Amino acid sequence: MEIPFYKYQGTGNDFVIIDNREQQYLSRQDHEVVERLCDRKFGVGADGLMLLQNSQDYDFEMVYFNADGYEGSMCGNGGRCIVAFAHFLGAIGDECRFIAVDGPHDAKVLPSGWVELKMVDVAEVEEGDGFYFLDTGSPHYVAFCPDVAQLDVVGEGRAIRYSDRFKAEGTNVNFVEKTADQLIVATYERGVEDETLSCGTGVTAAALAASLRNGKELEVSNGVTDIQAKGGKLQIKFAKTSQGFENIWLCGPATQVFQGTITIDT
Question: What is the pLDDT of residue 81?
């Protein structure tokens, strides 16, 4: 079977995207095919794969798979990339509302090429011994450190992800460094089981966790936090209330890298 695909990246977080609306090229059960397509040596290569599907109640449905071939929790950079893809196809205008695994999302495509994605509200944040744990559409462990560049992100991230507490369900692990005007974030992602150049739900979690340290280490101005991931710059906008966090937006670039057709034996 020949499958037309598109490759997108958002600050180095890269995805294979397939338009599954008119013809069903893949289903949720095609784990081995998805894993093969995401393989960087034998396939197209990506951190994850997404299907753009029709929805009766929304502009489209986003179905997201991790690189291991199985459906994952919400991917923020993936959400921004699939919005850019839908806009490229003419399936949406400059604004849309789509459905993903964690519920509905609003999004905007700006003339600059940035895509702004509204994330789920966050009501609960656990503050532990040297870490924060919260769910921004995906579960995230956030730890602050003095120098991200000197950290063994894969080794330390894997140790936390496979610790007794998290090994069954897994968690993403974010290491965050505060500078004068931004946060520097490195993320170990479950499902990919490696460090990625950027993680949208991860930088969102980092920004919210950092705001809880306001007055201790970080000044948060007007609910806006600039993020430096290894793959580029992102921005998080949010409102902090007595109920938690709401009106959370993940903002950044989403770029088409290339498109092609691949033949898959079925």
Answer: 98
φ/ψ of 80, rounded to 5, equals -65, -40
Q: Is 199 a catalytic residue?
A: yes
Q: Can you give the CATH number for the domain in which 33 is found?
A: 3.10.310.10
The answer to whether the beta carbons of residues 82 and 167 sit under 8 Å apart is: no
Q: Are residues 111 and 198 in the same domain?
A: no
159 and 224 within one domain: yes
Indicate the pTM of the whole model: 0.94
- Report the candidate in 121, 103, 102, 104 with the shortest Cα–Cα distance to residue 242: 121
Quote the domain boundaries for residue 141: 125-247
Query: Is the backbone of residue 146 left (phi > 0), alpha (psi -120 to 50) or beta?
Result: alpha
Whole-angstrom distance, CA of residue 212 vs CA of residue 197: 25
- Percentage helix, strand, coil, to 5, in the chain? 20, 45, 40
- 107 with 213, same domain: the answer is no
Res 213 pLDDT > 60: yes
pLDDT-derived band of residue 266, with 50, 70 and 90 as boundaries? low
Q: Is 75 a catalytic residue?
A: yes
Which of left, alpha, beta for 263 (phi over 0: left; psi -120 to 50: alpha)?
beta
Catalytic residue chosen out of the listed positions 81, 96, 199, 251 = 199
How many Å apart are CA 116 and CA 109, to the nearest integer?
A: 7
Number of domains in the chain: 2
Choose the catalytic residue: 38, 75, 96, 251: 75
Residue 22 has pLDDT above 50, yes or no: yes
Lowest-pLDDT range of 15-24, 94-103, 205-214: 205-214
